[in-house]
Amino acid sequence: MAAVVQQMVREVMDIRQAAEYLGISGDTLYRYASEGFIPAFKLGNRWRFKRSLLDTWMVQMSGVKAKAPIAVVPKQKKPAGRAR
Question: Between the N and C ends of the chain, which has fewer C-beta atoms within 10 Å?
Answer without folding.
Answer: C
